[in-house]
Amino acid sequence: MADRIKTKKAAALRYKPGIDQSPTMVGSGAGKIAEQIIELARENNIPIHEDADLVEILAHLKPGDEIPPATYAVVAEILAFIYKVNDNAGRQNI
Questions:
Q1: Which of 4, 25, 58, 61 has the fewest CB atoms lying closer than 10 Å?
Q2: Structural domain containing residue 23
């Protein structure tokens, strides 16, 4: 039986405290689009977090959609990690 090759998927969220009520989807894609999202994040020093289950949920959102309440806990953990990374790097915004 041949191994199934998984297509790379990526989702990009934005959260600006005081502006956004909750994290908002800004883009998602699979294959080459996912690779471009990841590359843009790297080029702009945006932290990347890998979570295949979460990206499956987020991939169903459209740009501008707020994340569903069921994902709040996981996304909050990711944001806490990003804030810590930013603080350590001396950055003010994500």
A1: 4
A2: 9-89
Among 19-23, 44-48, 88-92, name the one with the lowest average pLDDT: 88-92
- Number of neighbours of residue 58 by Cβ within 10 angstroms: 22
DSSP state of 21: S
pTM for this prediction = 0.71
For the chain, how many structural domains are there in total?
1
Per-residue pLDDT tens digits for 30-51: 999 999 999 999 999 888 888 8
29 found inside a domain:
yes
Write down the pLDDT at residue 44: 93
The CATH number assigned to the domain holding 40 equals 3.40.1690.10
| Residue 54 in tokens | 């979460």
> Which contacts (CB < 8 Å, 24+ apart) does range 67-74 have?
67/13, 67/22, 67/23, 67/24, 67/25, 72/22
